[in-house]
Write a structure and sequence with these properties.
This protein is of the alpha/beta class. The protein has helices at 15-27, 57-63, 94-105, 212-225, 249-254, 277-289, 295-312, 314-325, 333-339, 344-352, 357-364, 372-379; strands at residues 6-11, 33-37, 47-51, 69-78, 81-93, 109-111, 115-118, 122-125, 130-138, 148-162, 172-175, 184-191, 196-205, 230-247. The chain starts with 5 loop residues before the first strand and ends in a 12-residue tail after the last helix.
Length: 391
């Protein structure tokens, strides 16, 4: 049998796989790595954001070249609350991500490579060519499975050039003082300079479908309400992030059938926010540290990482069920407004996915912002079949 042509092939050039390839290039340059991306550039059309406290010092250091913008604080707004929270907040624009990662990978990146089939040790492209490796990591996005009950964070963002300064000097990561439109809706604002700003209309809803026309109209109306005149729309991005309500971890991974995977496909994302950058950073370091990168060892290692995250996020899935299944969809904002009245260190721990027992007790104490009976019923629905379909 011929030896495989590569040590590792990464199918899909999204955030998680591209970070793995880039980190391996830094730490283990002798490995024969190949990253396959169907489009012209890695990273797609996205803006990834994170709090400084989401990452450790070493993780912030090696990802620093990717960061497009940093701010020392951020704001939130609700019908009955406005608050500024101190703490570093950063964003990575996909074009900056590609600008750094692509030259570093060089010949280890192949763009315009459309994948037809993926297996643990081989990839077949649309042109029929077959590429072999000791292992293949599938990073082509979320895998549909009846083992998970999901809600969705759907969004459409426009990067706007305004005719006059917008007046913001920090991100507004949630402005929920807007009409709710049948789910938890908020507007997300990232001010890049005095006139350039990303305005993202975001909805926590039961289904992943997105009505782009409605969201564009929402953005135009929001800008008008703030007195902003749009000179031009520079860029538009859209997406739907999974929000996990309940699931059967072992059944989900048994369905993957030995295929190493990464990113959303591996379930490596924050169960409540859908954000995946900190998980992708940690996975890249974990893969680099593995002594053996053949398919069975890699699959077992990634599954173990995912199992640990699944256990750590059990409480987040409980909160998600209370958000999605208890009370009126148009009143979900009350849950988040109450959350943002809590101490700043607890809020930071929430986003970092490391709530302690005291944090969890504080989150559940006091009068709940949803009907008690419905909250208790939602808490008990720990299996996907107990929850109505949110796909």
């Amino acid at each position: 049998m011929n030896a495989p042509a590569h040590d590792l092939i990464l199918a899909g050039g999204g955030l998680a796989n591209a970070l793995i390839a880039w980190r391996l290039r830094q730490r283990r340059p002798g490995l024969r790595v190949l990253l396959l991306e169907q489009d012209e550039h890695v990273g797609g059309n996205h803006t990834w954001s994170f709090h400084d406290s989401d990452l450790g010092d070493a993780e912030r250091a090696w990802t620093a070249p990717l960061v497009s913008h940093r701010w020392p604080r951020y704001d939130v707004a609700f019908p009955q609350l406005r608050r500024t929270l101190d703490g570093g907040y950063a964003s990575i624009a996909s074009q900056d991500f590609a600008r750094v990662v692509e030259p570093a990978l060089g010949a280890a990146l192949r763009t315009g490579a459309r994948v037809r089939d993926v297996g643990p040790t081989a990839v077949t492209l649309e042109d029929g060519s077959r590429l072999t490796a000791r292992a293949v990591i599938d990073g082509r996005g979320m895998r549909a499975s009846s083992a998970l009950a999901l809600g969705w964070q759907t969004f459409l963002g426009q990067e706007l050039e305004l005719a006059a300064p917008h007046g913001l000097d920090a991100p507004v990561i949630m402005d929920a003082a807007v009409a709710q439109q049948g789910g938890y809706r908020f507007v997300y604002l990232l001010p890049f300079d005095t006139h350039r700003i990303l305005v993202e209309d975001t909805h926590y809803v039961d289904r992943a479908a997105i009505d782009a026309g409605t969201l564009r109209a929402n953005i135009a109306a929001y800008a008008d309400a703030r007195g902003w005149r749009i000179a031009s729309v520079l860029r538009e991005e859209r997406g739907a992030l999974p929000i996990v309500l309940a699931g059967d971890f072992e059944r989900y991974w048994d369905g993957i059938a030995g295929q190493p995977c990464a990113g959303l496909r591996a379930g490596l994302f924050h169960a409540t926010t859908g954000y995946s950058l900190p998980h992708a950073v940690r996975l890249a370091d974990a893969v680099c540290a593995l002594p053996d990168l053949d398919a069975p060892a890699l699959f077992a290692a990634i599954r173990a990482v995912a199992r640990g995250e699944w256990r750590r996020q059990r409480f987040f899935r409980l909160l998600n069920r209370m958000l999605f299944l208890a009370g009126s969809p148009d009143l979900r904002w009350r849950v988040m407004q109450r959350f943002y009245r809590l101490p700043a260190p607890l809020i930071a721990n929430f986003y970092a996915g490391r709530l302690g027992l005291a944090d969890k007790a504080r989150l559940l104490s006091g009068k709940p912002p949803v009907p008690v009976g419905q909250a208790l019923a939602a808490a008990c629905k720990i299996h996907p079949h107990q929850i109505r379909n949110h796909e």
